[in-house]
Write a structure and sequence with these properties.
Strand order of the largest sheet: 3-2-1-4-5
CATH class: Alpha Beta
CATH superfamily: 5'-nuclease
Length: 139
């Protein structure tokens, strides 16, 4: 299968919730092998882990990241092409008085560069970017 989706942090973290959204979980199962993650999202997940105190939750998240996700998900880099797209979009938005989160711009640019649909539960954070397809899998 070829890649079709880029997962945002809030989707990648969904299985870690006490009560994960059924719609998100069903779509994750349905699209196995078609999903990737952006390097900035990978950073956000590990940064969250690094800020936790030692304990069961930290151990569970580390196992999820290193044993469940890392072997099965492709991590896409923020490349020169992504950086150029991001710069153009950021300049366009700032000129209109809208300053997007830098990391959201990185994630959006990686999705656009690879022609992937971004899966997020925060569509409002990304709707301002031109050429980006966004979907919410929550049910």
């Amino acid at each position: 299968m070829s890649l079709a989706f880029l997962l945002d942090t809030n989707v990648l973290a969904e299985p870690l919730k006490a009560e994960p959204d059924r719609g998100v979980m069903a779509k994750i199962r349905q699209h196995e092998g078609q999903m990737a993650v952006a390097a900035p999202v990978w950073h956000e997940m590990w940064f969250g882990w690094a800020r936790l105190a030692a304990g069961k939750r930290r151990t569970a998240i580390e196992a999820y990241l290193s044993s469940a996700l890392r072997p099965s998900l492709q991590i896409l880099a923020y490349t020169a092409a992504a950086g150029e797209w991001h710069a153009r979009e950021r300049a366009r938005l700032v000129a209109r008085g809208r300053t997007p989160s830098f990391v959201d711009g990185q994630i959006a640019s990686i999705a656009v560069e690879h022609d992937l649909t971004l899966v997020t539960r925060n569509g409002s954070d990304f709707k301002m970017f031109h050429g980006l397809r966004v979907v919410d899998w929550s049910g």
